[in-house]
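FAQ: What does the model actually see?

It sees only this:
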Amino acid sequence: MLESLMNPFKAKRKPWEMFFIAILYYSVACILSLWVFKDYATIVTLLLTIVAVIPIIYNAIQLEEEESARPEVYSRILFGHFKYFSFTMYFFGGLVVASALWYVFAPTHIVQSLFNAQIKTIMGINITGHVSQSFGLFATIFFNNIKVLIFCIIFSFIYGSGAVFILTWNASVIGVAIGYYIRTKLAAISAYTGFQYMAHYFGIFSIGLLKYTIHGIPEILAYFIAGLAGSIISVGVIKKRYSSDGFSRTLWDASNLILIAIFITFVAAILEVYITPIIFK
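And it is asked to produce this:
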């Protein structure tokens, strides 16, 4: 039922609706997983969210593959896929906000059930402002992101829309990181009450989002671009276009998408290592 609320044509016409669709999908998944599979809520929540969105994503990818096989693909590259990236990024943003809100407002025992794996992942990341100028750190982050990018290509090629699994996980990790930042700051001012302190709450939410979106948005966009590249090749293979001119154009389009994704990943790593620590000391 949930997957019928949106289709790729409507998503491309009104991409902003995917933001709220994502919040709905994720919240329903949280409730069901806590109700039925509480001990495995972390994984089940992600799986239920993915099950709901895959029909939209896969049908959209088929449309993108047909577009990439047309002769005019040589003149459009990334811009021809703008509507696809638009609604997928809105969906990703909705997942980030939904997971952050659940982390901030849910009771502690529910937070532990829903986000145990994400919390362990975040705690395993040790990046401080004192080493943020190190080129070695930049190289580590950049090549780690390239590894994720390659996974997106491989998963998408093998499973068609396989990158959705990786991106949904990343959205939940970023959302929990934002939620942790917000919850920590709110606890620091919990002694204060009243209207005059509402600005502190809004400020904390804004800073929490900004801290991770400065480098997070280009980074995730790169993953979506790489995932689309693998997906359109996968669809072309399924449709057995091997010897057609359309398939060669699809390969050309996909290779350009991958190069663009690598460049955006490079920029995202620069922002994460050298810019974000300066702004949020």
